[in-house]
What does this fold into?
Amino acid sequence: MRPLTVAQALAAAAALSRLARGRRRAAPLRAAGHVTATISVVIPARDEERRIGPCLAAVAADPAVTEVVVVDDASSDGTARLAASMGAKVIAAPPLPEGWVGKQWALHHGVAAASGEIVVTLDADARPRPGLAGALAAALEDYDLVSVGPRFSCDGFVEQALHASMLATLVYRLGPADTTRPAAPHRVLANGQCMGFRREPMVRSAAFAAVRGHMTDDVALARWLARRGRRVGFLDAGGLLEVDMHDSAREVWREWGRSLPLADVTTPGRRAADLAVIWLAMALPVLRLLAGRPTRLDLTLLAVRLLLTVALRGSYRAPGLSVLVSPLLDPAAAVRLTWATLRPVRTWRGRAYSVRGPLSAAAKPARPGRSAGRSGT
It folds into this structure.
């Protein structure tokens, strides 16, 4: 048997074992009834004047939300002015200190300034529906941190197809995230577009300071908590949350592709093994099919991939034919994932950050009296 055939069989076995976790998926979030806890929504924002309005309007329509805090992270546009005019409590993040990534710095201060017992963090491109905040509060009876999977809004055929292919690479590497069986800490996944947690424990543990240097901030936070025995959950909230992440296929390729490798939260060995699974179990069968030379194993893997596209349709607001043909873009997604793994990007919104190792920034929080201690987190 040829070495490539053996390697592909091993990659297929790894992928199928991960995909099989989907048999034990947790129930999706449902709008909650009466909520007794106070809930603060915290939105970190840097130059989000164009996108934050619909987010704020949607949050204002949720009766369970008692406070909206927008952290203006040195915006050069009218983000702060617009947020204040829509009734949000706006605070200005202090100048970014050495060793911090902007989003964690903004959340660090926003959570410290919030007054609610429960904090829900949202990105400016999130579009929550009434009931989301209460549903997250109810889920925190079982978890210490909850993040959710939304329905994605994609405007074009190629954009949705490429997005669906890149989303599939996450499932092949980590399995479905919304399962009832807890993942190992090094395989925990989170979505920073929407998270919920109790404020006091997060402030006391200086959680955002602990992951202050990570570009992949959401996964770093979830894994940091999981390694400390905290209960971390990922739930489907497609009925309560939509997200319009990007404006074009080019932006999906550039912006989402940079974060997909999870480079600063995954060891080099695991990244290499995951890349092998993507190339051998996703990309190679498509390339052989297009060349007219698929093997039986290739055809089996293609059938599995098509079944996954059916499941992924529920992740989109308006799923079209583009989701079904997304496997044809798997080789392109593998190329983007490989390039971003070999050349990780450390720039975001006009800022450049120093390179850190996979787990270095999550090792311990900043000590009181330094930048973390000054804001009480």
Q: What stands out?
A: The first helix runs from residue 3 to 19.
